[in-house]
Amino acid sequence: MEKLFSYGTLRDATVQRAVFGRTLEGTNDTLDGYRLAQVRLADWDGARISGGDLQQTLAPAEGECVTGAVLHVSDDELRLAESYEPREYRRIKVRLRSGIEAWVYLKT
To answer: pTM of this prediction?
Structure first.
């Protein structure tokens, strides 16, 4: 089982059912050292699922934090998340405030 930190659309149950075919279990957590930033994506297939072309991303910001949810996903579901996320995003491993290590997507 993998852990995926979501601070945006993947926390929405409707988006989860569209991407993964089920609602995911998760717990609230915080990522320190980042802030939310909003970007408009011109070429993102996920816009039809999430309802718009505005997407949140993370920007490094000392002294700030982002709240979200740690979602528990299988390896196959992690690949589904990869196909849902915009092409401009990359997946990195982070350590959350709780000490949990999780994957997170952010715009490169």
So the answer is: 0.87
